[in-house]
Request: fold
Amino acid sequence: MITSLIGLILRAAVVLAGTALITFTLLWNAPGDPAQAIAMARFDALLTQDIINQVREEAGLDAGFWTAFITWVGPLLTLDFGQSSVTGRDVWPDLLTAIGYVTPLAVGGLAIGLALSFSLAIVATRRPGGLLDRFAIAVASLGTAIPAYWLGLLLILLFAVHLAWLPAMGARTPSHIILPALTLGLGVAASLTRIIRSGILEARDQPFLSAIRRRGVSPKDISRDHIAPHAAIPVVTVFGLELAFLLEGVVMVEVIFGRPGLGTFLVNAIEARDFPQVQAVVVLTALIFVTVNLIIDVIYRIIDPRIGGRNA
Amino acid sequence: MLKVDRVWVRRGSRFALENISLSLPPGKTLAIVGESGAGKSTLIATILGLLKPRKGDVTWADHSVRACGPALVMQEPRAAFNPALSLRRSVMEPIVARNEVVPHERIRRLSDSLELSLDILDRCPGEISIGQAQRLAILRALMTAPPLVLLDEPLSALDAATQKRTARLISDLQREERFAAMVVTHDLGYAVAHADEIAVIKSGRIEEVFTPQTFAMEPKSAYCRSLRDAAIALGALEEPV
Amino acid sequence: MRSVAAIVGALLFLAVAGPLLAPHDPTAINIPGRLSPPTSEYLLGTDILGRDILSRLLYGARWSLGLAFLISLIGLCAGTLIGLLAALGGKLTDWAAMRATDTFLAFPDLVAAVVIAGLLGSGTWSLIFALSVTGWMRYARVARGIGLSLRTRGYVIQAKLAGLNHWSVARWHYLPWLLPTLTVVWTGMFARAILGISALGFLGFGVQPPMPEWGTMLLDARIHLRSTPLQMIWPGLAVVISVLVINLAGDILRDTVATEGDHA
Reply:
């Protein structure tokens, strides 16, 4: 257990190092002068050629890729994201504001998605292959084909334009979150329903369950001791998948609804070529993602001791 | 001459072969006898260079074994042919790989000796019998006239009648082609009837090496004595006079 | 199998021949006739600059479907190559290839594509690069998994002993077994590429105006949502129908592969 835990952590570290390397390669090759970009990141917008040259020397940009990479990655290791190259402000406070906006949206979307998909899956599996089951699968398939930006526009059209029930753009009042969260939640539900449905079916149809049932174990005990642990693995997997889905969804949804948050922060930073802000989002996302996947891997090993060794 | 010189091979956390030394002169037959898990397949893989020994050397005429172009006949004949390809493609593979001209005359002669009709080459691996597949595998193995052929339980997937026929064909061919053969088997009767030397292997170590004559007479270790007695009891071996 | 080929063929036909079927020039501006409702001449109406929406949709198929096909094919080739290298190469190659795969998977791929396309500058080439570079990992994992299971097959060992070069071994003894499963993965990635292209287009990082691309058309339509709501229906519908049809093809293919037996 301890050695496999160390192995997992080492692997996560390698992945993070890889992400840093890829990000830096991207910045290195992005159009424009990297020295100027770094100089803009560190000082105010007004730059003289002297300052840029000085930065070039300090960052080891003349010495080549690897020296420059080491110099670049140093502050990131301490989560020091520096200053925005556009506003000159520290990146962290703005990033925290964005996170403050994105968290309720993501949590709301996930909650709506989980509630919808679980109820749909439970109704569907009451009679597998039945009309309701096939309907649920069809709805889920349709849902996965609808891109979030189109769904969002449709919801705006219906609830904000035609019915005028809900506000669409911005984040001024609490009710502004309803449509974005609904857009996100419908997407989550579409992607989850099939997985949860087959998870329930699989957990319920294990061959040994009928043997236990015949021996007179109560249904409640069977659910607790045999079905629930088996169903737990797909649920854990789902959380790993959903994290990716949520992060992607959030970017699109925030842009559609003109809502401040991590996605808007990222897109604006890219458009302004504000490298320090972009880096901050990338590093933070990778960190969250790798950590969550690490936790999921550990939970897997606790639920199912068979998993381990050289899994792909 | 095949030389296996004090070879140690690791598999996972333990040694599957410990200090194995063997030799096989050109044109002769060496039988490796032992129960499953004794390390027979590991030995074959090591000789073919598919596994690297931790210590020791395997050579043919003082060069690596792979350099002499050894051939392998496997236990499961159908698995030796890719079901996605025609048998002709599979059989020609050694020729294609070496960019050689297809030796039509040799193929005809070999297929005659193996009692195979050449039109089965146009079929798929699933469409021929296991016996045919094994004879075809032997045909493929001998295409490039290798000086060394390794046979990994070549008969055990076949039924009794086919076993006899295939064993006869193998020894006939060996007389014609003069290749050195190393046969892994658990069939003592076959080993005694066809081999020039028999090595008994147990738990990755060589227990004893005999000639067929001495094996029936005077096994030193208790394990080899029990093997001999079991073979006699099964009628696979004649009792020594 | 035939129905799958027909579906993919029809989509590709649209991508290639779409422009030929278009009744109007997709970029021809006609201010007096702007925001026209559907008429017999403009079957789906016109947009804010008076351009024919149907023609724009048909031209857009070249980008949205054609580019998606190209991107998913690049991913297929690159991913299969990396997966096979991992399976056939030594332990170190395997380790490096798998950690690279983990690294690229350690990031929501659409977000990664947005960052890459954005940083490299908007345009078709950076769009192709961004979606390809984030779209090979699933192929690589599948190819490696099947490859590892084939490595100990009798015919692979025989091919190695015969001295067949690595390329031929991969071509004749691995690819025939990889292709069915990889094709199923490919349909999923084709759909993903369609969604990715239009998502990047919608964010303004993809195909640039005035080129008609479905995502960019949605971006246009979003601005005029209140005045001409119908305008945003068509490009979205085009994306949804394409993705649905490809997913259907993928489901049929998956069933076929499953019934043909698990060879790997």
In short: Residues 219-256 of chain A form the longest helix (38 residues). Chains A and B do not touch (no CB pair under 8 Å).
